[in-house]
């Protein structure tokens, strides 16, 4: 599957659809070239691996008591370090990130995840290395 965004639920955006078409075209071009026997050299790419789903702070009744801090809003894929603002309570108190490493949050404050009790997910940036790739003909 291919997910391109962010895009509000129920909205069709031309720019996002164009990005999706380009990604699918690149994927199909790769499959065609691979099937034609093209050799692809080794490569390394940075990716983000999901670590943890983080819920909103809640009271004893399960009600949300804080919102995403304005400095975190719209900062998907940006580094979040220990002590950075994370949530803002309805009383104006800042709840900082308390972690032992830098993480890269994503899906921050996505409406589709409220019912799943997910304010965002943390990811770690890792490098993946692929060896050369070529179709072997038997």
Give the helices and strands, then pairings.
Elements: H1 14-35, E1 43-54, E2 66-68, E3 85-89, E4 94-96, E5 120-130
Antiparallel strand pairs: 1-5, 2-3, 3-4
Helix content: 10-25%
Classified by CATH, the class of the largest domain is Mainly Beta
Report the principal-axis shape. Answer: elongated
| Strand residue content | 15-25%
Unreliable residue stretches: none
Major sheet: 3 strands, antiparallel
Q: Give the topology string: H per helix, E per strand.
A: HEEEEE
Q: Strands of the largest sheet, in order across it?
A: 2-3-4
CATH topology of the largest domain: the name is N-terminal domain of TfIIb
The counted number of beta strands is 5
CATH architecture of the largest domain: Single Sheet
Domain AstE/AspA barrel-sandwich hybrid: 44-125
Protein name: ACY2 Aspartoacylase
GO molecular function: hydrolase activity, acting on carbon-nitrogen (but not peptide) bonds, in linear amides
Organism: Oriolus oriolus (Eurasian golden oriole)
Please summarize what this structure is.
With 138 residues, the chain is α+β, with helices and mostly antiparallel strands. It has one helix at residues 14-35, and strands at residues 43-54, 66-68, 85-89, 94-96, 120-130. It has a three-stranded antiparallel beta sheet with strand order 2-3-4, with no helix packed on it. Strands 1-5 form a two-stranded antiparallel ribbon.
Tell me about this structure.
It is elongated and about 65 Å long. The protein folds into two domains: 1-38; 43-130, N-terminal domain of TfIIb, CATH 2.20.25. The strands form two sheets. The chain has a three-stranded antiparallel beta sheet, with no helix packed on it. It is an alpha+beta fold and 138 residues long. The protein has one helix spanning 14-35, and strands at residues 43-54, 66-68, 85-89, 94-96, 120-130. The mean pLDDT is 91. Residues 44-125 form the AstE/AspA barrel-sandwich hybrid domain.
């Amino acid at each position: 599957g291919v997910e391109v965004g962010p895009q509000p639920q129920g909205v069709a955006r031309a720019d996002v659809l164009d990005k999706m078409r380009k990604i699918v075209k690149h994927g199909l071009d790769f499959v065609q070239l691979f099937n034609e026997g093209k050799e692809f050299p080794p490569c390394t790419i940075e990716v983000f691996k999901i670590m943890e789903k983080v819920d909103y702070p809640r009271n004893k009744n399960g009600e949300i008591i804080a919102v995403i801090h304005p400095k975190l809003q719209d900062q998907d894929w940006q580094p979040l370090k220990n002590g950075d603002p994370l949530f803002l309570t309805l009383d104006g108190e800042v709840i900082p990130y308390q972690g032992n490493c830098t993480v890269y949050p994503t899906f921050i404050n996505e409406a589709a995840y409220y019912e799943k009790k997910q304010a965002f997910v943390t990811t770690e940036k890792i490098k993946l290395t692929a060896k050369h790739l070529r179709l072997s003909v038997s």
